[in-house]
Design goal:
It comes from Kribbella italica. Its cofactor is [2Fe-2S] cluster; [3Fe-4S] cluster; [4Fe-4S] cluster. InterPro entries: 2Fe-2S_ferredoxin-like_sf, 2Fe-2S_ferredoxin-type, 2Fe2S_fd_BS, 4Fe4S_Fe-S-bd, Beta-grasp_dom_sf, Helical_ferredxn, SDH/FRD_Iron-Sulfur, Succ_DH/fum_Rdtase_Fe-S. The structure is a single chain. By secondary structure, this protein is of the alpha+beta class. The chain has two domains: 100 residues, Beta-grasp domain (Ubiquitin-like (UB roll), Roll); 143 residues, Alpha-helical ferredoxin (Fumarate Reductase Iron-sulfur Protein, Chain B, domain 2), CATH 1.10.1060. 36% of the residues lie in helices and 17% in strands. The protein has ten helices and seven strands. The strands form two sheets. It has a five-stranded mixed beta sheet. The protein has a two-stranded antiparallel ribbon with strand order 6-7. Strand 1 and strand 2 form a beta hairpin. Helix 6 packs antiparallel against helix 7 and helix 6 packs across helix 9. The longest helix has 18 residues. The model has no long low-confidence stretch (mean pLDDT 94). The structure holds iron/sulfur cluster, FE3-S4 cluster (F3S) and FE2/S2 (inorganic) cluster. FE3-S4 cluster (F3S) binds next to helix 8 and helix 9. FE2/S2 (inorganic) cluster binds next to loops.
Length: 248
């Protein structure tokens, strides 16, 4: 069954733009990205949209659909009424390049600032040993497809451009938490998370967790445990005394 769908799509570039209305065919079983592609093929050949796998795995087609951060390829058209207008806008937290395509290089910069896995100096590759339970603990975080929808939705940077310098966002705080959970990682991830990546800015609203297409429990399983470890260390009397003595 085909019907004429009403679409409102943001068109423009870094200088400015506006929402434009279109009527476009929608077929049974389609997702928003199918309809955007049909729009491109039939009415707006210059419409810019980033995508790759159309299977929810590459993390490229992130956008906001009726104001909610989503993957366009995983958003089914049958979740809308036939007469309903579907509004598609680019991710708000990142600068627009053109139409639905944003510049997500903020995320690459933050990723580069995190030192990679740091094994103890006295172990050589091949001598690393860890328990299966520790392997499994971080598997959840490894499902991340880097769609940056969590980064887009977190109010700390969504509404406050000025926080971008000091806050790396849920995706990268989760990466630090993952490394901190690794039994062989010797780097000081707790200071790093707090001092360089702004863990303290997170007030556990859990919006990041809500939008994650991989259903990773970012807040409960990565950010809150990381906050607890930072707090334990700060308020542990032995650590406190050690820090005092070191500062003298
Ligand atoms: Fe996307 Fe989830 Fe990874 Fe965030 S944690 S980048 S929402 S897959
Ligand atoms: Fe932001 Fe997620 Fe914390 S939305 S405030 S990083 S719980
Ligand atoms: Fe790859 Fe949507 S096109 S996640």
């Amino acid at each position: 069954m085909t019907y004429k769908g009403k679409f409102r799509v943001w068109r423009g570039d870094g200088e400015g733009g506006e929402l434009q209305d279109y009527e476009v065919d929608v077929n049974e079983g389609e997702v928003v990205l199918d309809v955007i592609h049909r729009l491109q093929a039939t009415q707006t050949p210059d419409l810019a949209v980033r995508w790759n796998c159309k299977a929810g795995k590459c993390g490229s087609c992130s956008a906001e659909i009726n104001g909610k951060p989503k993957l366009m390829c995983m958003c089914r058209m049958n979740t809308f009424e036939e007469g309903e207008t579907v509004t598609v806008t680019p991710m708000r937290t990142f600068p627009v390049i053109r139409d639905l395509v944003t510049d997500v290089s903020f995320n690459y910069t933050k990723a580069r600032e995190i030192p990679s896995f740091t094994p103890p100096a006295d172990l050589k590759p091949g001598e690393y040993r860890m328990q299966q339970v520790d392997v499994e603990r971080s598997q959840e975080f490894r499902k991340c497809i880097e769609c940056f929808l969590c980064q887009d939705t977190c109010h700390v940077i969504r509404d406050h451009e000025e926080n971008k310098e000091s806050f790396s966002g849920p995706r990268f705080l989760m990466r630090i938490a993952e490394l901190d959970m690794h039994p062989l990682d010797a780097a000081d991830r707790q200071h790093e998370a707090q001092d360089q990546h702004g863990l303290g800015f997170c007030n556990i609203t859990k919006c990041c967790t809500e939008v994650c297409p991989e259903h990773i429990k970012i807040t409960d399983n990565a950010l809150i445990p990381m906050k607890e470890r930072v707090a334990d260390r700060k308020y542990d009397p032995i650590v406190w005394l050690g820090n005092k003595i070191r500062r003298r």
